[in-house]
Amino acid sequence: MATRNAVVLLSGGLDSSTTLAIAKEQRFRLYALSFRYGQRHQVELQAATRIAQAIGVEEHRIIDIDLRAFGGSALTSDIDVPKGRNPNEMSDGIPITYVPARNTIFLSYALAWAEVLKSSDIFIGVNAIDYSGYPDCRPEFIQAFQTLANLATKAGVEGTAAIMIHAPLVDLTKAEIIKKGIALGIDYSLTSSCYDPSALGEACGSCDSCQLRRKGFEEAGVADPTRYCVSQVPA
Q1: Which of 95-99, 154-158, 206-210 is the least confident region?
Q2: CB atoms < 10 A from the CB of 75, how many?
Q3: Has residue 227 been placed in a domain?
Q4: How big is the CA angle at 192 (ends 190 and 195), to the nearest 5 degrees?
Q5: How many domains does the chain have?
Q6: How far is 1 from 128, CA to CA, in rounded Å?
Q7: Most exposed among 19, 53, 99, 113, judged by the fewest C-beta atoms under 10 Å?
Q8: SS in 3 state form for 10-79?
Q9: The overall pTM is greater than 0.90
Q10: pLDDT digits (tens, 9 = 90+) for 179-232
């Protein structure tokens, strides 16, 4: 029986969906939070809705914010998404798909909802192993935001509850994440990870996110259920 509320950031991708399932396994009442922030891959919100329904949440909210007002990313501006990069290129610096301050903004919204729900637990599916080099996916960032959360909230200041930012995937490889999700019964065909999907929601197969996802399934020894564009089906 679930006894505590938790806000879970849910993009509809592989990592956030696994995080939602982990929070359920830990017997939290689930409140899923997604964002329509001007991203080119808004198909992920359809995936988030599917996953929220499949895993079973108390409530799923999709919040509208406009990060295209600032741009600065291939996901929120008219900048081409990098394709076909090799592992060395993907690990060299911060890529143009990084959205400035995105996780800081998302966690701030989650913190606000958590206060209203009288929850001290927020889950985020960041990963610092098989990832694209984003600065707001590192353990140092998560720890710093947790410190901020306890300085910036009524519950934290009054000492009635210590805010915890849970990042259960932060030190796992993509293959380990997939194995964990399979064990928890996740249907990964419901998820979407591509940065530049087709109008039909098919994955491009060659952006960083697609490559990391495909590598994860290969290393996990699990069949990849992703729908790729016909011209981009991996050999």
Answers
A1: 154-158
A2: 22
A3: no
A4: 170
A5: 1
A6: 32
A7: 53
A8: CCCCHHHHHHHHHHHHCCEEEEEEEEECCCCCCHHHHHHHHHHHHHCCCEEEEEECCHHHCCCCCCCCCC
A9: yes
A10: 999 999 999 999 999 999 998 889 999 999 999 999 999 999 999 999 998 654
* DSSP designation for 83: B
- Give dist(CA 139, CA 152) in Å, integer: 20
Report the DSSP beta bridge partners of residue 32.
Answer: 8, 60
The CATH number for 180's domain is 3.40.50.620
User: Quick one: how far is CA 22 from the chain centroid?
Assistant: 13
Q: Which amino acid is at 216?
A: G
How far apart, in Å, are the Cα atoms of 166 and each of 12, 56, 170, 225?
Answer: 18, 19, 9, 28
CB 61 within 8 A of CB 113: yes
Supply 204's token pair.
Answer: 């491009």
